[in-house]
Design brief:
465 residues; alpha/beta; FAD/NAD(P)-binding domain; 16 helices; 24% strand
């Protein structure tokens, strides 16, 4: 490899993807500057200290799927890492079941006449698709193609609409293939169909998580992993600037020449040879100077994200439930986590912390945390026998402005228009959840960061003589 000590890579965004890209580059001697607008590294996969306790911005734990990344993170975290067995549940049909849902749970949860009806719908959907192949035009049709109309109406329609604030017929079919976990309860039936020649060759949902696996956490919550990555980057000579809001991406002759950012009211400009962006791709487009063509700007405006509002609760109970987290289909919240069950240290003693996750819109009542919303959340927690209003000692509201990419109907050409512009800039990459407008989990996002870093390193390899 050529000497890279004089090469400078600027990375925009300090979530798992950006941090790991910086980790890979700094480890081989590349000059790296990572800019993160928040004062806490980690993006959505971190925690924030409020009072005496840490509150996660959602339920985030490290999986072991990517062995190379996992071993590297374990080496960085050392004794801070706490292994914990996956214990996720879903509240469904008035009972609790393992998540992802199992076939036997489906049998228990649905009365026999309805089970026969739903199964018949599934069979019909599979035979129809085999006899008369058709391409779904939206998420509603994709779900019906996968599971049949009865199961779609029973299990998916209302929850999807409530979660996203968008009816499934207004979501792209791509959403099902990239975000919606596959209902493993149905897989058993579909496998049986496959044995008689009815194969599922078209739309496929995302493979479900393993039912038994080891996750990794820490006593201070999700913040330990990004903090360990920052330490590793800095030990290798990289620079991580927190509280740095990217304001301009300076372009000369179609290349990124420098990045401007604002920190503590001061505007700073740094030159770069390469740029990896993990910030939301519409933000990247808007910050380019000179501006991209109007059609790119217009396309970027069409790409939207679903915000999240996380209610972190300090509860005067030693424990609220016996799982790591539980999914709910008909409450104000869609998931509640109890990180103490994974090893989080909580103060004072005999108290616990709940992470109550909601989707929202910026500026609405959930985002603002109004008294009315809190009252509804507290009432639903009490209805689920998790805790009472009187048990709640503190409420801390956390936000994720760009929590989830929205795969709205017809988003694909807009995304392609923007990504074509990115690809035309030879020293720019846009990747990760927000930068790639994708749904990677934490270790997959880090792998995307590693891939972006390797792409740069391959450019700088000495040509073979």
């Amino acid at each position: 490899m050529t000497t890279v000590s004089n090469k400078h890579v600027v990375i925009l965004g300090g979530g798992p993807c950006g941090l790991y890209a910086a980790r890979v580059l700094s480890r081989v001697g590349v000059k790296v500057t990572l800019l993160e607008k928040d004062l806490q590294p980690g993006g959505l996969a971190t925690s924030h200290k409020r009072g005496e306790n840490w509150y996660d911005l959602g339920c985030h734990m490290l999986h072991e799927f990517d062995k190379e990344i996992f071993e590297d993170i374990m080496d960085l975290m050392g004794d801070e890492s706490i292994p914990v067995q996956l214990d996720a549940k879903i509240r469904w049909a008035k009972n609790f079941y393992r998540y992802p849902l199992q076939f036997q749970d489906m049998i228990k949860g649905i009365p026999l006449p309805l089970l026969v009806f739903y199964t018949a719908g599934l069979f019909y959907a599979q035979f129809r698709k085999t006899l008369v192949p058709w391409t779904p035009k939206n998420a509603e049709q994709a779900l019906i193609q996968l599971y049949g109309s009865p199961l779609y109406r029973f299990f998916f329609r209302d929850f999807t609409h409530r979660y996203w604030g968008i009816h499934p017929r207004e979501l792209s079919a791509t959403f099902i293939t990239t975000k919606m976990p596959r209902l493993s309860a149905v897989d058993v039936l579909k496998k049986a169909l496959g044995k008689v020649g009815v194969k599922d060759k078209e739309v496929r949902a995302v493979d479900s998580a393993l039912h038994e696996e080891t996750l990794h956490y820490s006593k201070r919550g999700a913040e330990a992993m990004p903090r360990a990555l920052v330490r590793g980057i800095e030990e290798d000579g990289g620079v991580v600037v927190l509280g740095a809001e990217v304001s301009k991406l300076m372009m000369i002759d179609g290349r990124v020449s420098a990045v401007q950012y604002v920190k503590d009211g001061e505007t700073i400009e740094i030159a770069c040879d390469e740029c990896i962006s993990t910030i939301p791709v519409p933000w990247l487009v808007k910050r380019a100077e000179p501006a991209p063509p109007q059609e790119v700007m217009t396309a970027a405006e069409k790409l939207r994200f679903k915000p999240i509002a996380i209610y972190g609760l300090l509860v005067n109970k030693p424990q609220c439930f016996d799982a790591l987290y539980i999914y709910y289909r008909d409450r104000m919240f869609h998931r509640v986590g109890e990180p103490k069950n994974a090893g989080l240290k909580v103060t004072p003693a005999n108290h616990t912390v709940l992470i109550v996750e909601t989707t929202c819109e910026i500026g609405d009542d959930k985002w603002k945390g109004t008294d009315e919303v809190k009252a509804k959340i507290f009432a639903d927690l009490e209805k689920e026998s998790i805790c009472s209003k009187d048990d709640i000692v503190e409420v801390h509201l956390l936000h994720g402005e760009t929590g989830y990419p929205i795969f709205a109907l017809g988003f694909e050409p807009h995304l392609e228009e923007v990504m074509q512009w990115v690809r035309r800039v030879p020293n720019l990459q846009s990747t990760g959840r927000q930068g790639g407008f994708k749904y990677p989990n934490m270790h997959a996002a880090m792998r995307m960061g590693a891939t972006a870093a390797q792409t740069i390193l391959q450019k700088w390899e000495k040509p073979k003589s």
